Amino acid sequence: MATTTPARGAYSPPPGGTGAAPHGRGTWRARLWRFDDKASPYAYIAPFFLIFGAFGLYPLLYTGWIALHRVEMTSLDRSEWVGWDNFARILQDSEFWTAVFNTFVIGVISTVPQLLVALGLAHLLNYKLRASTFWRTVILTPYATSVATAALVFALVFRADGGILNWVLHFFGAGNTDWGNGEWTSKIAISVIVIWRWTGYNALIYLAAMQAVPTDLYEAAAIDGATRWQQFRKVTIPSLRPTILFTIVISTIGSMQLFGEPLLLQGGTLGSIGGSEHQYETLSIYLFNYGWKLGHLGPAAAVAWAMLVLLLLIALINWIVGRFVRKSAA
Amino acid sequence: MTTASPTKTAPGLAPAPLPATPRKGRARLRLGAGRQLRGGPFTYAALVVVGLGSVFPLYWTLVAASHDQQRVLDSPPPLVPGGRLWSNLQAAWDQAHLGKAIVNSVIVAGCITAATLFFCTLAGYAFAKMRFRGRGVLMTAVIATLTIPPQLSVVPLFMMMSDIGWSGKLESVVFPTLVGAFGVFFMRQYLLEALPYELIEAAKVDGASNIRIVWNVVLPVARPAMMVLGMLTFVQAWNDFFWPFLALNQQDPTIQVALGQLSASYTPDQSIVMAGALISTLPLLLVFVVFGKQIVGGIMAGAVKG
């Protein structure tokens, strides 16, 4: 590694003569050199913070301002102070609470099975396998599929008439299910799309974490006479706790954002109101409908802030549960 | 360092030397060491089931795209591809301006990927190997931005874009995603391990300026990670739906937006919609077939965090 120069210290003059050492030669150069050292790191990280500031943080705060104003899609440059009216408007709208409920329910029934299956799948992939890369790539193919494609294919699969799922189920004696129009079946359908797209990805994340667990832990457990199931529960799971927490957080945030799946499950106008009875309307759909279909950006911004509050609530619950789990484990 | 015999170690795995402990417990020990276990028939059976489940919807996209709509919705649904693939592809292509949409997607995803690689490598290098005031706090700030969903800022973002005159233009989709927190974190993790301080010091002794060090030392070392990050970013940018759907219009969409609009038309022909879906997915599937191993490795490498 260090074969290039004879010495690593900065005091020995560099070989090859012509370059001349920059340090201490003339104050102007030295100062420039020091400035380069001090400023460079900031220059390198600046693009991230500039972009985030301009297109992330600033709009986030601006959302708060819009939420207190009347802004219409048809006249974007005009705004009128309305105070808390927008918030009152959405909080009194039963559709908003339906959307909150739906987002929460779909979030739970998509995240929980997805992470459990991913955990089991990672466990299987952690065995010594033939063609292990092949299996890993195969379970990751849904990740390469866009929301739009996935939602559209599953829309066909879940179709009431001529849907392939109903056809399969009729062999088991089930009647035709109208997946998209049912209160619960539509939520299940959307969760299936989410689960399909993300299970493999999460499995790989768990697999990476499993491979980082030192083998002597398992050996020690084996010496103590632990069965394989006990090893999984007492060694693997605790070692994976940070990773599991991480995936829970990411999946929770992801489920707050569900948009393409509900929009395209039935498509058309039904999609933009989340079903004829709003049975699968998520908060993102509600925001989109208010802002882009009805053209009222003020309430849409208020919805965004409501989402922020919900996220913070979830984070708080996560934190409390995490603390509780850690305490009871200790 | 390892005293284990060099002959019998599985390639790729850490040598995991069997300790020279009493023979008695050896069989049990091997059984216990989780990762050395071979998968049994049950393992393979389960993987086949999951694998089929992962691939079937994509296969069915192809099947549905190669029949006419009536056949697709018939009661025993078709299970093998039919002969109308080409005409459906053409219909999708014409109806939804997919040609333009694909060009747009290539431009958008290409710009985002190039910028992400450049900026994230710079920032990742700074966070990994340079000493500066506030490094820890700033890195935490970078990670924290991951938790902010785009929904929270789309309303003003839309207004800003219309202010600048970018509404409906590709710029409105490209600029907000030029650099991402994941990429910064990913490059930092890689460079922390892959780039030895000695290399940087040596370049400094030779009188290289910081930007020269980036060009001549950091970039060559970072190249493998940049490849992976590039593919991950491209996939994300190509598949992005929410903001592009709000920001772009029918005349000038990305491929995903065009697909959404194709299905939202009055009585969408399902097999044509599926043909469109196929067109939008194929490029990525090709990337996956060729670079699957690297992408898998990249996701797993990005996952292990402190």
UniProtKB/TrEMBL annotation, chain A:
<dbReference type="GO" id="GO:0005886">
    <property type="term" value="C:plasma membrane"/>
</dbReference>
<keyword id="KW-0472">Membrane</keyword>
<dbReference type="Pfam" id="PF00528">
    <property type="entry name" value="BPD_transp_1"/>
</dbReference>
<keyword id="KW-0813">Transport</keyword>
<feature type="transmembrane region" description="Helical">
    <location>
        <begin position="42"/>
        <end position="68"/>
    </location>
</feature>
<keyword id="KW-1133">Transmembrane helix</keyword>
<feature type="transmembrane region" description="Helical">
    <location>
        <begin position="302"/>
        <end position="321"/>
    </location>
</feature>
<feature type="region of interest" description="Disordered">
    <location>
        <begin position="1"/>
        <end position="24"/>
    </location>
</feature>
<keyword id="KW-1003">Cell membrane</keyword>
<dbReference type="InterPro" id="IPR051393">
    <property type="entry name" value="ABC_transporter_permease"/>
</dbReference>
<dbReference type="GO" id="GO:0055085">
    <property type="term" value="P:transmembrane transport"/>
</dbReference>
<feature type="transmembrane region" description="Helical">
    <location>
        <begin position="99"/>
        <end position="122"/>
    </location>
</feature>
<feature type="transmembrane region" description="Helical">
    <location>
        <begin position="243"/>
        <end position="260"/>
    </location>
</feature>
<protein>
    <submittedName>
        <fullName>Cellobiose transport system permease protein</fullName>
    </submittedName>
</protein>
<dbReference type="InterPro" id="IPR000515">
    <property type="entry name" value="MetI-like"/>
</dbReference>
<keyword id="KW-0812">Transmembrane</keyword>
<comment type="similarity">
    <text>Belongs to the binding-protein-dependent transport system permease family.</text>
</comment>
<feature type="domain" description="ABC transmembrane type-1">
    <location>
        <begin position="100"/>
        <end position="318"/>
    </location>
</feature>
<feature type="transmembrane region" description="Helical">
    <location>
        <begin position="134"/>
        <end position="158"/>
    </location>
</feature>
<dbReference type="InterPro" id="IPR035906">
    <property type="entry name" value="MetI-like_sf"/>
</dbReference>
TrEMBL record, chain B:
<feature type="transmembrane region" description="Helical">
    <location>
        <begin position="213"/>
        <end position="238"/>
    </location>
</feature>
<feature type="transmembrane region" description="Helical">
    <location>
        <begin position="173"/>
        <end position="192"/>
    </location>
</feature>
<dbReference type="GO" id="GO:0005886">
    <property type="term" value="C:plasma membrane"/>
</dbReference>
<feature type="transmembrane region" description="Helical">
    <location>
        <begin position="42"/>
        <end position="62"/>
    </location>
</feature>
<protein>
    <submittedName>
        <fullName>Cellobiose transport system permease protein</fullName>
    </submittedName>
</protein>
<comment type="similarity">
    <text>Belongs to the binding-protein-dependent transport system permease family.</text>
</comment>
<feature type="domain" description="ABC transmembrane type-1">
    <location>
        <begin position="102"/>
        <end position="291"/>
    </location>
</feature>
<dbReference type="InterPro" id="IPR000515">
    <property type="entry name" value="MetI-like"/>
</dbReference>
<feature type="region of interest" description="Disordered">
    <location>
        <begin position="1"/>
        <end position="25"/>
    </location>
</feature>
<feature type="transmembrane region" description="Helical">
    <location>
        <begin position="272"/>
        <end position="291"/>
    </location>
</feature>
<dbReference type="InterPro" id="IPR035906">
    <property type="entry name" value="MetI-like_sf"/>
</dbReference>
<keyword id="KW-0813">Transport</keyword>
<dbReference type="Pfam" id="PF00528">
    <property type="entry name" value="BPD_transp_1"/>
</dbReference>
<feature type="compositionally biased region" description="Low complexity">
    <location>
        <begin position="1"/>
        <end position="13"/>
    </location>
</feature>
<dbReference type="GO" id="GO:0055085">
    <property type="term" value="P:transmembrane transport"/>
</dbReference>
<feature type="transmembrane region" description="Helical">
    <location>
        <begin position="102"/>
        <end position="125"/>
    </location>
</feature>
<keyword id="KW-0472">Membrane</keyword>
<keyword id="KW-1133">Transmembrane helix</keyword>
<keyword id="KW-0812">Transmembrane</keyword>
<feature type="transmembrane region" description="Helical">
    <location>
        <begin position="137"/>
        <end position="161"/>
    </location>
</feature>
<keyword id="KW-1003">Cell membrane</keyword>
